[in-house]
Structure formats: C-alpha cells, structure tokens
Specification:
amp nucleosidase, domain 1; five-stranded mixed sheet; five-stranded mixed β-barrel; 2 domains; 32% helix; 17 strands
Length: 494
C-alpha cells in the first residue's frame, strides 16, 4: 500500500458494505458499482487538484474484490481444470474493469457458485487504485510526469505499487495475500491494469477490441492479407463478424470503408476481426525476437484468451525441406533466455492435442492434402528458438550438434517463448511455421527470393491460422483449456 504524508487527511468515497451474492450477474453488477464509485471519485478529485492546486488531503479509493469461504473438501468434476477451489479456506481476488471482463467474471463466479454451493462476497479490498489506472480510459486526461505538476502526485494520490504488480501467482507456488486469503485468480487487479495500459501503448488499440483467439506473427506482410480477409467477412452477413479494427482504434463495419493512417506505427501493431461475443480473431505483429514475444504475451495474457497461435517464418534445418513447407511444433528447444527466471528451461512445454489437431486439420483443409500426402509439405517436430538472429555466423559445431540432438526441424526467434508463456499463463498455445530459408544447406533469405516467397505463401499460411482458430472456437471452452496447463495448487479462475 502506498504511504501518504503524515499531515495529510485521508479521504475516500462512500461505498456499500460487503454483501453476499448467490447470482453471478448481480455480483458483477456490484463489482461494477464499486469500481465506478472508486474511479469516478478519483477522477473528480484529480481534476479538482489539477485545476485548483494541491491540498492537505490524500485521496484514496480501493479496488473491489471477490471473496469466497469454503469449509468442505467437496470433490468437483475432475474433468474440469478450473472453476473450483482446492479445499477449505478463505479465497479472494481484486478486480478491475468489470465492464471489460464482465462475461469472464460471470462465467467464473457461476462455476464457483455451482461447484461449492456457497455465496460469494463482494466488497472493497485493501488495495488502493493508482490514479494512473483510475483515469487511463479517459483520452482527454493525462497524469503528468513527476515534477511537471508543480507538486508531488504521491502526496495526494496512490501510484502503481510493484508489490501488487507481479507474476507471483502464476509463477507459483500459490502465495497468500497480505490478509491471509488464497488467490482466486491468476492476476491481481493492479497487474491487470498495468498490462492493459501496456497493451494500449504497444499495439495502439484499446484492450476492448482484443478478441479471444489470437494470432501472433513476426512479419507485417500478414496484415494486408488479414485486412483483405476481414473485408470479405464483413461483406458476408452470415460470417458472424461485426467489425474490423486497425491500429489507432479505427473501426470499420463497412467492407469498403477507409482505414485512417496512423501518425506513427506502434511497436506491435494489432488488428481485430470482431464478433459480438468477443470470440473473433486478433492478429498482432510482434516483430522479431524473443523479447518482443515475451512482452506481447505478458500483457495479452491478462485478457484470458482461449488460445494464441504463432504463425511465423523459420529456418528449415533438414535437407528434405523446401521453401514454403510448414512446420507444426510438437516440442521446443528453448535457447531464447528471456523466460529462464520465470520458467526454468528444464520445465517441459507439452504439445496440446486440441491445438495440434486443429492446426493439422486446418493445413489439410486449406492445402487439400490428406493423410500421408500431407507429409509432402508439413513436418511435425521440435522447433528451436534462439535469441541471436545471426546464429549462422558463429562456429557451427556446437549449435548444430545441439540442434541435431534435439531432433529440431526448424529454428526461429519467437515460438518457444510464446509457447512457454502460454504454458506459464495457462493460455492454450500452438505453433505453425513456414520455412523461408535453409541456411545450413546454402539457401539464404535474400531480397529477391524473399519477395517471391512471401507473395506465394503468406495468404495460404494466414488462412490456415484463421481456419484453426475457427475450429477452436467451435470447441467447448472447458475442453480447450487443458488440465495439462494446471499445477498442483491452482487458482479457481481460469
């Protein structure tokens, strides 16, 4: 909790006392009320302060929270990987943006009520809402940097606190909150707010536009194809898609609409083909490298997507491969290094059967090849991910031996990072790469070769990814969220 000046008077909004609820919908309504009261209060006091100057008051409002207490070792349906607590105890989680997470919260609370037969309590927590997060949805209000307001912002408002903005819960083992309760959800409210702000910064689109099925790529070439596909879907009333959103929050409902150019392309441009229930497709160009891959997935994870799939280019490592062939990853050699402190390299990253089947089925559907014939254009095997783009220029004896021992068939700079972060955050993941060069066999990615290759393969590769997401969307969500991603002591919320 952020400290305040000793001579400051602490002021907070009047809010309802904690109450128990037997209905998920009314529980979320109360969460929304508490959140609105808190953020409206902070926004109003901030506006007063910026207009009238500092006072001797410190303004504080708190995140709402969900609590549940169980006294039974009731055995829940063992087929489920979420929706219940492990045993007797007091559980809680802070909540932000109930408007954004309404469907998710209703779904998770409904499962708790069903599986345990006890009410949930909704009230205010002891975690202050930082002023930066309270007003981050207001495009016309900006929190000044330290020193630019003419007074210390910390004297009057709470600011982000790293003690509650971390990955301690997902990295495990489960940690108790300061009040002794056990976490209900994988992220605290401040951790979620932090990532929502980062997503807006890196992708130049608001979190509200992100959909439940995410495609990640490392080339801007895929964007034009995705836009063309989106326009074709908007032209089809039966498609189920309602709009297309480009970087800068430019939203089209007319397939012939014009996308306004952005003044500056963001670091990780995102594009969203939306459905009314949020089950559409988001495409993010994360760029090249494991650091970008980690950054993007660190923040997308708080939105609790149903899957993320990597569609990128790779170096083919086998002489039998050809440029344009596909690689379906079923294992990963992790030499990206960026997640070593969060997830040790000795942790196996399993292939998820539901994702693998969807990707292989999509390849067959798009290429019109089946069974043994599919092997002509696709290999299933280990993908190695490294942090050195010019690995070919080093002494080859060591790297090539490791690649051979791991039975790797492809090498890139993002896939293992994305899979490992999916594993860490319990987000179903998969990888389908396209061979763009074969450096070990003298076929380098040169400008002329690359352009011909991209023109021929990008459209087909993207359509496979889209087809796979559509197959996954038709799968029950409790099946796609596999028990393989859950540890000994898991949060009840997905």
């Amino acid at each position: 909790m952020t400290s305040t000046r000793r001579d400051a008077t602490l002021l907070s909004p009047q809010v309802p006392k904690a109450e128990e609820f037997q209905s998920a919908e009314t529980a979320v309504d109360r969460l929304q009320l508490l959140y609105d009261l808190a953020t409206d209060y902070l926004a109003a006091r901030f506006a007063d302060t910026m207009r009238d100057g500092p006072t001797q008051q410190h303004y504080r409002a708190y995140y709402p929270e969900i609590r549940i207490t169980t006294t039974s070792f009731l055995q829940a349906d063992s087929r489920l990987s979420f929706g219940y607590v492990a045993g007797p105890g007091h559980y809680s989680t802070t909540v932000t943006r109930p408007d954004l997470f309404r469907s998710y919260l209703i779904q998770q609370i409904t499962l708790l009520l069903k599986n345990h037969g006890v009410p949930v309590w909704i009230g205010v927590s002891q975690t202050p809402i930082p002023i930066h997060f309270a007003i981050q949805g207001d495009q016309d209000t900006v929190v000044p940097s330290h020193g630019f307001a003419g007074f210390s912002l910390r004297d009057m408002f709470d600011v982000p606190d790293l003690n509650t903005t971390n990955d301690d819960i997902v990295n495990g083992p489960a940690v108790e909150a300061p009040d002794g309760t056990i976490p209900l959800a994988p992220f605290t409210a401040q951790r979620v707010d932090y990532s929502l702000a980062r997503l807006t910064h890196y992708t130049a689109t608001a979190p509200e536009h992100f959909q439940s099925y995410v495609l990640l790529t490392n080339y801007q070439f895929y964007v034009a194809e995705f836009e063309a596909y989106a326009r074709s879907q908007l032209a089809d009333p039966a498609s189920g898609y309602t709009s297309f959103v480009s970087s800068g929050n430019c939203e089209l409902t007319d397939p012939a609409g014009v996308i306004a150019p952005v003044a500056r392309l963001p670091q990780m441009p995102s594009y969203h083909l939306k459905r009314a229930d949020g089950s559409g497709i988001t495409l993010v160009n994360i760029g090249v490298g494991p650091s970008n891959a980690k950054t993007a997935t660190d923040h997308i994870a708080v939105l609790r997507p149903h899957s993320w799939l990597m569609l990128g280019h790779c170096a083919g490592l086998r002489n039998s491969q050809r440029l344009g062939d596909f690689v379906l990853a079923h294992a990963y050699l992790r030499e990206d290094k960026v997640l070593d402190d969060d997830l040790p390299v000795w942790v196996p990253i399993p292939a998820l059967a539901e994702i693998q089947i969807a990707l292989e089925t999509a390849v067959a559907d798009v290429t019109k090849l089946q069974g043994y014939e599919l092997k002509r254009i696709m290999r299933t095997g280990t993908v190695a991910t490294v942090d050195n783009r010019n690995w070919e220029l080093r002494d080859q004896s060591g790297p090539v031996q490791r690649l051979s021992q791991s039975r790797a068939v492809a090498l890139d700079m993002e896939s293992a990072t994305i899979a490992a972060n999916g594993y860490r955050f319990r987000v179903p993941y998969g990888t389908l790469l396209c061979v763009s060069d074969k450096p070990l066999h003298g076929e380098l990615k040169l400008p002329g070769m690359a352009s011909d290759f991209y023109r021929a393969q990008v459209a087909q590769h993207l359509m496979i990814g889209i087809k796979a997401t559509e197959l996954l969307r038709n799968m029950p969500f409790d099946r796609i969220h596999s028990r393989k991603l859950r540890s000994f002591d898991e949060t009840a919320f997905l």
